Amino acid sequence: MSVQPFNNSKKHKAINLEEIKKIDKKVWFITGAGRGMGVDIAKAALAAGYQVVATGRNTDKVTQAIGASDNLLVVQLDVNKLSDAEAAVKAAIEKFGRVDVLVNNAANFYAGYFEELSPAQIEKQINTNLIGPMNVTRAVLPVMRKARSGHIISISSLAGLIGQEFCSAYAASKFGLEGWMESLRFDVEPFGIHTTVVEPGFFRTELLEPESTNWPELSIDDYAERTTQTRAMWESMNGKQGGDPAKLAKALLTIASEEKPPLRWIAGADAVAAFEQKLVELQEQINAYRDLSTDLSYE
Length: 299
What we know:
The strands form two sheets. Strands 3-2-1-4-6-7-9 form a seven-stranded parallel sheet, with helices on both faces. A two-stranded parallel sheet has the order 5-8. Helix 5 (119-147) packs parallel to helix 6 (168-188). The protein contains ten helices and nine strands. The chain is α/β, with parallel strands linked by helices and 299 residues long. Helix 2 links the parallel strand 1 (27-30) and strand 2. The radius of gyration is 22 Å and the shape is globular. 53% of the residues lie in helices and 14% in strands.
């Protein structure tokens, strides 16, 4: 019987240590990582030593925005295509062996009064902001269920809990995202999978850039003056929002590292203030109609 040389034994141990290190690194899968908040989240995760799968429709833009890293895998992904999501998750597993944190970040903004937004525009809004995250989550969940662990984070908005003027389609998509995520929690918690909805206020991202914001295709005289004024107001906000997306990204790492992360995380002082006011209004409405609401049972 031959005996393995001592040096080979040391080398074998070193390989095992590297494998352990690899296993200990969380793998973050981020959609919409070519611009906006997705870039900040990807950079923050890489800086923390995590492995990152950064996805986007244009992989060149993703690579240019984030830079190079041994811990980075850039993959093409249009969230509107389930086949893209499945292929991207497959590539992530082949590269890193797992997906620990999914960040559903990819989104766009169809601004306008409801009647002036075409049916096609509203459909695109719902598809990207609601069906898109569902597609990617559907592709990732089998991996997380097998591992009996994971964290699904979906980036919603202040408009996910509070309706706003000129935001009917966007709010519909984000309200839908909120309801889906809140309900999904009950599906996946038994498998050790956490869910968190992030509700940012106004952050200085690229959401109001022409590449992300779409204006009404239709024009109705009754809305014309208000549309002109409101569009100008939204355009004037671009680049002047108070929230720092880099700070949000770092804070998100804290949320994701908690043993029991929150179902909802309100991001930004403006969002906190707005939601507190919403709670006051809801309580006032409950109290105002309490007797009428509760006296509806069969005698």
